[in-house]
Amino acid sequence: MHLSQLDMSYPITILTLFPEMFPGTLAHSIMKKAAEKELWNLTVINIRDFAEGNYKRVDDTPYGGGAGMVMKADVVAKAIRAAKKNQPNAPVIFMTPSGTPFKQAKAVELSKNKAGVILLCGHYEGIDERVLETEVDMEISIGDYVLSGGEIAAQVVVDAIIRNIQGVLGNDNTLSEESFDEDENGQKLLEYPHYTRPETWEGLEVPEVLRSGHHDNIKKWRKQKSLEKTKKVRPDILE
Ligand code: SAM
């Protein structure tokens, strides 16, 4: 293997209490091919390995009372510090519903940082705030709902980052006209509809303009459809 190939490999470390949930979806399709091409690599760290005593206790009851268990600061901090030994310059990102909503722009930004990312998955009620204050650089939510753990969220974030790395998608143009990309006016729009063969399916025809071969008209039609869709389902992203 050439050093240049190694240099290109985007490093990702996952910190989790459930390492068996990885690589999960990331072992398939585009992510699998990209890992085989060494465009990215995954390290999974079991947070429990840093717990002490016979019971390897990773959580405890919350101060102030209330439901659920809280992951312990000392155990989580040791796991984060172990990950940082291999990736000292990577941001440590905690997956949490109370984090900043994850957007395409953040996925693109993170994909450009060769240091990669360290993703911390919570479970139960969450993690002792003190370790978040001292060891975590960023908190990310994948949506306004509560999952049982950060593992699915982390896989979402990894997929969204990796597909922006050069060489991951067969055709790099695939990236330039997707939902949430900015058009030539800096406007973010949802993507236009797609069609493929057959021309007529159950009485429904592919729009004539797409069969015309007239590139300017196709471009205009797609822009119009993008605008209509965005106005209808996501008026909040239209300026
Ligand atoms: N008590 C927390 C709250 O109300 O914000 C929810 C904890 S949740 C049951 C357990 C873990 O799942 C969280 O620590 C986080 O890592 C992960 N998680 C849940 N929903 C998430 C979301 N929308 N985005 C990212 N991570 C999420």
Please describe the structure with a list of short key phrases separated by commas or semicolons.
Trp Operon Repressor, Chain A; 3-stranded mixed β-sheet; 5-stranded parallel β-sheet; alpha/beta; 239 residues; 10 strands; 2 domains; binds S-adenosylmethionine; 18% strand; Alpha/beta knot
Q: Say which CATH homologous superfamily of the largest domain is assigned.
A: SPOUT methyltransferase, trefoil knot domain
Are any ligands bound, and if so which?
Answer: S-adenosylmethionine
Strand order of the largest sheet: 2-1-6-5-8
Low-confidence parts: 1-6
Please tell me the overall pLDDT.
94
Helical run tally: 8
What is the molecular shape?
elongated
Distance between the termini: 48 Å
What letter string, H or E per element, gives the SSE order? HEHEEEHEHEEHEHEEHH
CATH top-level class of the largest domain: Alpha Beta
Describe the oligomeric state of these chains in a short phrase: single chain
Helix content range: 25-40%
CATH architectural group of the largest domain: 3-Layer(aba) Sandwich
Q: What structural category characterises the helix and strand content?
A: alpha/beta
Q: How many discrete structural domains?
A: 2
Radius of gyration: 22 Å
